[in-house]
Each structure stands twice: as C-alpha cells, then as structure tokens.
Amino acid sequence: MTSIPKCLLHSNQTVVIDFKRNKIENITGSDFECFPFLDTLDLSYNKISNLENTTFFKLKNLRKLDLSYNDIQYIEPRTFSYRPGSLLFINLRENKLISVDVTNVLVGYWFSKLYLDFNQISKLTNKLHWKMEHATGGGDIFMSHNKISHLPNMSDIGFTRRSIVKIISFKYSFRLGHNPWFCDCRFSWFVPILRLARNNFDVGGRTVCKYPISLRGKLAVNVPEDLFICNISVKQKCPLSCNCFEQPSRKRVVVNCSRSKKYEIPSAFPQQSNLDIDLSHNLITILEYRAYLNRTVAIDLSFNKIKIIDPLVYGIETLKLINVENNQITDLHRNIQLMKNGRKVFIGNITVENSCRKKWIANWLEYQNRLLVRPDRIVCRQRNEELISFYMTDNCSFRKKYLAYEKYLIVGSFLIILIATLTRIIFKYEIYLLLRKFRHRFKLNVINPVEQSSLFDIYMSFSEDKEDIRQWMIGVLTTHLETIGFKVCLPPRDFDLGGVHVDQIMTHTASSKNYVVVLSDDYLKTQYQVIEWGHIWNNYKRNINSNILVINYDMLHSKNIKDQILKAFLRLHFSIDFSNFDKQ
Questions:
Q1: Residue 385 has pLDDT above 50, yes or no
Q2: CA–centroid distance for 550 within its chain
Q3: Which sign, positive or negative, has the C-alpha torsion 465, 466, 469, 475?
Q4: What's residue 310's pLDDT?
Q5: Of 86, 314, 455, 498, whose CA is between 20 and 30 Å from 155?
Q6: Other beta carbons less than 10 A from residue 69's beta carbon
Q7: Quick one: which H or E segment has residue 161?
C-alpha cells in the first residue's frame, strides 16, 4: 500500500493497526481521525519522510507508535507532546534524521521508551524557544549510533545547569553510546552529571571518546578531569612552537613554550584569562612588561639567561607566581617587595653586590622564605672579601660601624640643635625647617605671606634620565594626583618644545604652590636640575604657605647627599621613603 485506505474510516472500534512493510509515503491527521480506541500503530518499514504535529492529534488512547525503518528526515516540534499519559512507546529507529527538536525528546510526560538510535542526528534544535522551567515527565531515551560529537549549548535548547542535572540524573535516561564524542573542555562539565546519573540509570557505559586521539576508546566517565582540554591554535594567538590549551578543571589556560629556543618573551598570547605560562629552558635575557601579564596567574622563566626584570611586573596583582630560578640575575629592584598576600617569587640562588642601599633585601628575604617550602639563597659580595652566604635568619652583610654611625649622627644632630647656638652655621637649614614647621603648627605667621598667582598646585622635579623613575612619575604618581583633582606641572610634558629651558623653569616654579622632589642618586648631577632646585627653594622661602615633599626614591642616607638643603630634609626625616615596611 502507498497510503492509508479510506475504507478504514468506519472501523472506529479498532485498537491495533499493523501496516508495516508497505510503501506508505505520507500520513496526516485525517488518516486516523476515526480511531478513538486505537492503542497500537505499526508503520515500520515504509517510506514516510515527514511527520506533522497534527498527525496523531486525535488518537487519544494511542500508547505504542512504531515508525522505525522509514525515511523520516523531519519531525515538526511538539509532534508527541499533545497527550500526557499516552504514547508510552515511540520507535523512530533507523530513519534519516539529522536533527531533532528538543520538544520531541523531552515530551513533557512519563513514557517508557523513545528510540532515536541509528539515525544521523548531530544536533538538537529549539525552534519554539522552549524552556525547561520545571522538569516534568521522564523515560528512557535511546540516541546511540548517531553522529553527535559535541554537546549543545544548554541555554540555546532551554536548559539551565540546575535543570539539566535534575533531568538527566533523576528523570530521563539518555543512552548516548556509539557516537563520535569529542572529549574536550566543553564536555568536561557533563561527566560529573553522567556519573551521578549512573546511580539511577544504566547510562554512561557506552559513552566512549573518539576524539582526541589520545583518549580514543576510553569511557568518558573514567577519564580524569585534567585531560578534558581544548587546544588553542596559532590563529587564536598561541605563539609559534608552543602548545596552548584550556583546562577547565584547574581554571587555567596553559601556554607551554618550554624548550622552544625563544630569545624574548612573545608579544601576544591567547585572549583568555588565567594564563599559566611556561617559558622555561629558553634563551630569554629580559623579562619585559606585557599587557597580557595582567591576565596571567603564573609564569615560569627558570633556566633562561635573564639579567633584567621590569619592576612593573612585580606590581601585577593577578600574577600569583613568578619563577626566575637559574638565571643570571645580579640585582633586585625594591618593587619585588610588592609580591605579598600569597603572591610568590622564586629567585633561587643569586649573587648581588653589597651596598648599604640594599639593606631591605635581608628583611624581605626572611619574609619570603617563610612562605616557601624551598628557601631562596642570596649571596652578598663584599669588596676584597670572600663571599658570605645569608639565609632567612641572617642579615645581609652590612658593617656594624655604618649602623652605629647612622644612629649617633641622628641623635647628635638633634642634641646639637637644642644645646649649641654655634652650630647654627652648620645646621642653619635644619633650624629653618624646624622653625617653619613650628610657625605652621602654632599659626605664628604674623607677617602676611607673599601672595602670588598660582597656575599649578604641584611642580614635579626628578631625574628624567632614569627610566624607572620616569615611568613611575608619569604613569603612576602624576596620574593619581590629577585624578583626584590636582593641577600638576610635569616638565617633560608641560614645557614648550624649543623654548628656553632656564626661563621656563623660572616661570613654572614661580607659578606653582607646592613642589615634589624625587631624590635619586643622580639628582642635581645636571646644571638644569641645580637651577631648578635653586628656584624651588627660593619660591619656598618667599611663600610661607608653600610645601616641599621630598621622596627618597633610592633610599639615600643623608651622609650621601652633598646639597645641604636636601641633607636637612633627610636629617629631620622631612621626607618619605619610597619603599618602607609600615604600609604607608
């Protein structure tokens, strides 16, 4: 037969129709509208190609529907969802379906079995924008021997993570074996659900990985979570000669460039966050700051030839671990002290030249080694002396006479100021600064201060030749001050190009209320800085309401300062150490 005989329309007491192994091509709702008691309909082994959602609408008592071994390519949404309590057995095995709508899988009522196996299904659709707000119904769903390789996007087919756990683990049994599963990072979240479902249903036993090759033939439920990864290609900014992959189990993106013969760190990395970068065993000489380091949680640069580390790297809050063991580092920047609150840096065994300015290294190393299982080791080299090793309980070698001299000098300076008027010539600037501070504190400004027009709130004076100071002044301090409302005069930026430098120094210092002086070991080494400091001091003396803020960037001792005025600031502690330990 090629169609349903119309003579059957008067047989309204029929409960079973068996038309298997015919040549029926089309069926519609009108073919079965007079069978109110029909219980079983067998149309297997025919040539039916499509099903409409009104075909079985009037078969109110239909419990068993067999449409296996047909040519069905398309089923309209909600074809089986109109009669709760009916259609307990639906067989669509061995057809030509390439997709199936989610409403024809989760039909919304309890049923026995739904066979969709041995088709060519590769995806689920949701043409009616259906949402599973409340998981209802349940039953066994057979979808093995299809072409499903990846899980669908759950939100696209109307699910949330919570609803999919409830459905697959407690209501619907999905048989998904003998599909070409790609066990990558997008599949990893589904494995715990499969394991949970095995407690209630016989599922997961045939869900076998086909890709990647390394997991082929393995049961998905037995694969360790760390092996569910997604490879990242060169097109997705994985550096050449590197292996990049996303690993959800550890919430990271691994970039393995170890032993790739690189002479510098790559300029681009994948766009994802939580990068875990391995650049060990290469030929890199400089750890430069890169924007992608703000998306990095760990970087391994051990066994390279690194001599220089950009100080800005230490300030990246997201960077929890830096490994620079077995390199050629001979100095440490004080910014390394920013590595705290659980952030760690492995420096291994290094040798640095001894200097009083590096006194902070000993305290930092002791704190750092408290956090590490394997303590780092720093060797301080003394001139004309043997190398002396210092571990976490030692202090970096500084001669006791320097420490004693510093203490006696400070105490003696205050005593001389208080008890000897003859020392006024030597300590005249200290006395002036103390008196000025005294007048401010007790408001003894009897004489009105000089009124002057002020174009700027703050004038910045620093050594423009030092790269780290220039970066910090321009990129950090000036930006912060201007953000909170101060008008800042920054000479490299605000001086006219081609103008007379000396004239501009005089004009801009006179038009500023206050001054910031960044004290480094090469400050006042140029003629222009000597002139600049002279104008700052003269304007400071003329205006009693003016202030000078001295930032001791290089942690200089007053005995290393030749300029008597700046020496007075340090002696009186009228300065701020750039790096200190009291969180100021």
A1: no
A2: 37
A3: positive
A4: 92
A5: 86
A6: 20
A7: helix 161-170
